[in-house]
Amino acid sequence: MTGLQKLKEFCTRLDHYPSRLAIQTEIERLLPEDEKESIELEELRFLFDLQHRRVAEADAYWQKETGNKDVFPDLEALIRFLLERARSAQEARP
Questions:
Q1: Which of 15, 80, 91, 93 is the most buried (most CB within 10 A)?
Q2: Cα 62 vs. chain centroid, distance in angstroms?
Q3: Can you give the C-alpha Rg of the chain in angstroms?
Q4: Which of 4, 1, 2, 9 has its CA nearest to residue 44?
């Protein structure tokens, strides 16, 4: 398995890591020294695509919940909205 394949597989498990430092440490461990430079751009593109998909999913949720189907929130508004939803859900738990 190449370093990039390991990285892609690792990125499917990002939610299981407690911090950004833990993620960076694991990426460093997964990539052999000779592959680090050659795949850096590919790695960044892959992570950007992953982040883009997650933000697009959150945007779609925001649009559905607010009824603003033709509007995309800026990132700050989206994060505030999601945090408010998470707080409300947490408060509703017994």
A1: 80
A2: 17
A3: 17
A4: 4
Report in angstroms the alpha-carbon separations of 21 from 14, 17, 78, 89: 12, 9, 25, 29
What is the chain's length?
94
Residue 54 has pLDDT above 80, yes or no: yes
User: What does the DSSP assignment read for the chain?
Assistant: --HHHHHHHHHTTGGG-SSHHHHHHHHHHHS-HHHHHHHHHHHHHHHHHHHHHHHHHHHHHHHHHHS-TT----HHHHHHHHHHHHHHHHHH--
Q: Which residue has the higher pLDDT, 39 or 29?
A: 29
Domains of the chain, by residue range, sit at 3-92
CA dist., res. 83 & res. 54, Å (int): 15
Structure tokens at 80: 């505030």
Separation of alpha carbons 31 and 34, rounded Å: 8
